[in-house]
Amino acid sequence: MSSKHRGIYASTEGGGVQLAAGNDRWQLHDDYVHLAPDARGPLVRFEAELKPFVDSTQRGALVIIDMQNDFCSPGGWTDSSGLDFKRCREAIPGVKRAIEAARKHGMWVVWVYWHNRPDLRNLGAPTLYAFKHETEQAGIGENLANGPVLTRGSWGASMVDELKPLMDEDDVYIEKVRMSGFYGTHLDQVLRTQGINTLFFSGVNIDQCVSTTMEDACFRDYNAVLLKDACATSSPDYCRQAIEFNAKNCWGFAMTTADFANPRPHRAD
């Protein structure tokens, strides 16, 4: 590695500032952020907040989180809990658009979802309490009219019907047992072995499983991007607003599915 790449905050040839050192360094410019200054092949510019960024689509993957019946369908867990499942369904059109764009870009599509053991031995008390605050409230693994909540093999744990036709056998499928898709799973190993650096996040709930997975991605030094109109939540609006704020100010970037689908070719200065 050239010694010039070891200087954090060093000046770059294009008038920018280097962030970090080594192969995964970024270059911060006045009007964009370059995420892959050493990448070979075509580069594109994605319009995003707080700044546009330049990257290679070959380094990216679309991550779809928890688009399952228990969150998004009538008779599911969200619905049975008295929350508005229709608000979660608002993510479905955006997820469809994101999948179409990811396939066009040649990116991996990664499906992350709750698949708990029927005996619940993988869940501790704090996680169980997070979703069962009253004795009469149905918690993870307890039975509803359509079967046990978020349990492997159940109706509630299945993907919503609208997305099933878009699932491909070559996609990556990650079963999780916590809000974050990284905790206790092989998601990190799969991404590292496939050379994936940039993750585009979609799904539900934006303020819970999407946000915790995006935070964990940032903590692991992935380039994290929130697809705002491909996410939803049954929580109050201020929860979504806080996540969108933190996504672009703390964890990475935020953009729409239209911007994800239509990057512009990047030409070096």
TrEMBL record:
UniProt xrefs under InterPro entries: Isochorismatase-like_dom, Isochorismatase-like_hydrls, Isochorismatase-like_sf
Keyword terms of this UniProt record: Hydrolase
Domain named Isochorismatase-like: residues: 61-258
Superkingdom of source: Bacteria
Coiled coil: none
One Pfam family recorded for the sequence: Isochorismatase
Descriptive protein name: Peroxyureidoacrylate/ureidoacrylate amidohydrolase RutB
Species of provenance: Tsuneonella deserti
Gene name, Swiss-Prot/TrEMBL: rutB
